[in-house]
Amino acid sequence: MAKTIPLKQRAYKTIQRRILTGRHGPGELLNRRGIAAELGMSSAPVHEAMLQLERDGLLEALPRIGTRVRTASRDDVRGQLIVREALECQAARLICGEPIARNRERLFPLADVLDALEPLDPKSAEQEITFHCALVKLADCPSLLLEYQRVMQIGLFYRIHLAMNIVPEVPKDLHRALVTKLAAADPETADKLVRQHIRYGKPVMLRPVTNNGILEDAPSGVQHKADRLPSNHGKQKRATTKRTNVS
Predict the structure, then answer these.
(1) Is residue 66 pLDDT above 60, yes or no?
(2) Residue 238: CB atoms within 10 Å
(3) Model pLDDT for residues 115-168, shown as the tens digit of each residue
(4) Residues ≥6 apart with Cβ < 8 Å to 226
(5) Residue 197 contacts residue 180 (beta carbons within 8 Å)
(6) How far apart are CA 44 and CA 50, in angstroms?
């Protein structure tokens, strides 16, 4: 007998998939009743699903306007990277050495698939989440894994919608090498390895931004390739938000 999927979960997965595949872009207002009618359910489970997606960081509610796909500033992207770093480095401290060594043969195939993909391949972002979540899962801490998955989901959203493919050419065995090094690392070394890995190709995004949107410590006159999001990006999008029915 097929397992029945709760209506809230079905609505959640549908909206989440549309956001993460680019069907609904940043700033697009979602019609709750339209979604409910399309999915053949009442608006209550859709409302609950949208509240969860707000908590997950993919939607945002605007007073007297409605709920829209989240917009983001450059500082939001920087914040996501910092939180990811904090969570994954803590996981690295817990899983380095024997836990990684014991699961190395299961991790290597995931790493090899990811290393074989070009950084700009659409499949690369999803495979990166699969690989890194497999690492964090070894910490055997459900709360840590749940929060990490949420942060990585937001990172995928940024990467799809906000031109965040800023990774330069990477070594062909980058992720396999990470597994090998973590299997022989102590907690301090593992922390440094993962921190360096996460920051690879993203040093510009991790720098603070001044009030006028200029990178601190950026050389005068230099235009960084990763500077795609001005600090007032969210405000600009707010002014141009349009209402779009879901079809």
Answers:
(1) yes
(2) 15
(3) 999 877 778 888 999 999 999 999 999 999 999 999 999 988 887 776 554 555
(4) 166, 202, 204, 205
(5) no
(6) 10
Instruction: Write down the H helix ranges in the chain.
Output: 7-20, 32-39, 43-55, 74-95, 98-102, 104-116, 122-137, 142-161, 174-183, 187-199, 233-239
Measured CA to CA, the distance from residue 157 to residue 149 in angstroms comes to 12
Angstrom distance (rounded) from CA 172 to CA 175: 8
Count of C-beta atoms within a 10 Å radius of residue 188: 10
Query: What domains lie within the chain, and their CATH numbers?
Result: 7-72+234-239 (1.10.10.10), 75-206 (1.20.120.530)
Q: Look-up: residue for tokens 């956001």?
A: 19
Distance, CA of 91 to CA of 144 (rounded, Å): 8
Looking at the DSSP bridge assignments, the partners of residue 61 are 67
Per-residue tokens: 142: 């459900």
| Cα separation, 214 vs 220, whole angstroms | 10
3 state SS of 204: helix
- Predicted confidence (pLDDT) per residue in 79-126, tens digit: 999 999 999 999 999 999 999 999 999 999 999 999 999 877 778 888
